Prior knowledge:
Number of strands: 2
Radius of gyration: 27 Å
Number of helices: 3
Oligomer: single chain
Distance between the termini: 72 Å
Number of domains: 2
Structural class: mainly alpha
Amino acid sequence: xxxxxxKTAWRTxxxxxxxxxxxxxGLTIALLVFMLISSLVIDELSYDRQWGNSNELxxxxxxxxxxxxxxxxxxxxxxxxxxxxMKTNFPEILGYTTINSSSQK
Length: 105
């Protein structure tokens, strides 16, 4: 019975080649886009999950409001020393660290 279904499917594919090809290409592109988007979402949701208290981790960012010639600058960081001042002013902060990713050549 399965042989009969496969034979019928093959004959239909050969009879309507352009229609079948466009459906297969569309399905392939849709699956590719789905896999790419799902891998990006999984990567974003797994950020810093390897730490024991990952629900207590926070990242500070500074987003300035000034624009220059229509471009908005987006800085991923905070001014130096801000974490130390926040630690002294807020007793809820258990610890902090700073990351300096700028390289000096």
